[in-house]
Amino acid sequence: MVSLASNPQKFKVKVQPSLIDGTGVFADEAIPPYKKIGELRGESISVAEARRRAKRQQRIMIVEVSDKRAIDASGSSDPMRFTNHSCAPNTVLRIRQGRVEFYALRAIVPGEELTANYGETHHEGRLTCRCGAPNCVGSL
Length: 140
Hints:
The strands form 4 sheets. This protein has a 3-stranded antiparallel β-sheet, with no helix packed on it. Strands 4-6-5 form a 3-stranded antiparallel β-sheet, with helices on one face. The chain has one helix at 47-56; strands spanning 13-17, 23-27, 36-40, 43-46, 62-64, 69-72, 84-85, 91-96, 99-104, 115-116. It is mostly beta strands. This is Lysine methyltransferase.
């Protein structure tokens, strides 16, 4: 379990194996709709550096926060970095004042995996999506 005092999480979450892909982050308590769940922190880098890093890695944890800056969370201890993609997500990622924040799209029950729609990725449609949603588009 994650200590709420040491991170920007507003709700208790836990990191564990995911049926979607590798490791995921799961609600450890009920999360009401539209509430901020937490943030993703990491190293602030240029977008050019972020794109260089993304080309070298299959699994990335990088979010572009502006046309000039990105956050690389691969070295972060924030559990939200394990938020897997889903074509039917239960969270939305918002960029606010250079911060990467996650909000619940609906009520989330304890034990449910937190997911977000990644949108455009460096995979450019070459990576198979494994979200299992009825409306899955099939690739990232």
